[in-house]
Amino acid sequence: MFERFTKDARAVVEGAWGYAEQGGAGTVDAEHLLLALLDREGSRGSFALAVLGLAERREVVRDALREARRRAGITRAEADALAGLGIDVAQIVARVEEVHGVGAMSGDRGDRRWWGGRRPNFGRAAKDVLERALRVALARRDRHIGDEHLLLAFTVLPGVAGEVLADHGVTFEAVTRVCPPVRPARG
Q: Matching Pfam families, A to Z (predicted)?
């Protein structure tokens, strides 16, 4: 599948590996892909984010992703559902961090590079983003998978990354409006 990725989409994947390694994560998660996507400049995905006003709010998005990671990736919708059952996620996180330290629920391993120097594998959510990006590109009849397809994939998948993007008005419809399909030139 990666042979169909544009250089911008490949750069997002490389950046995601970097974020996972930097955080000591055992797997590349969807949030790592989104962080790497936020770093891009001069690409179709970065253009869409800029037009939708997210380029100047990158730090707010990064903070929201960090907070969600502290909650072990539980979305606000999931936390609200648990609250309806009498389970206070914030209280659980506070208690775990009191005993084990800040970020204990994130799954990150700090500086312990337990994978022996190899790059971390992709987690289920990251694989879902990559697979959905392929499906989005096929549905739009685009020949290659660009970083805009990754962005579109985030907007249709459940999870923290999509929730954070939606909070800032980055939806499938909005991205499609500012980033239409690429049509090959006819010659």
A: Clp_N
DSSP 51-100: HTT-GGGHHHHHHHHHHHHHTTT--HHHHHHHHHTT--HHHHHHHHHHHH
In a domain, 187, yes or no: no
**Domain containing residue 88:** 2-178
Q: Does residue 25 contact residue 109 with C-beta atoms inside 8 Å?
A: yes
Q: Region 117-142: what's the mean pLDDT?
A: 90
pLDDT at 103 over 70: no
Tell me how many domains the chain contains. Answer: 1
Q: Which two tokens stand for residue 151?
A: 């962005």
In a domain, 183, yes or no: no
Whole-structure pTM value:
0.81
> At 44, which CATH number?
1.10.1780.10
How many other CB atoms are there within 10 angstroms of residue 159's CB atom?
Answer: 19
Greatest mean pLDDT range, 81-90, 114-123, 161-170: 161-170
Residue at 141 is within a domain = yes
Which pLDDT does position 145 carry in this prediction? 95
Instruction: Answer whether residue 46 shows pLDDT above 70.
Output: yes
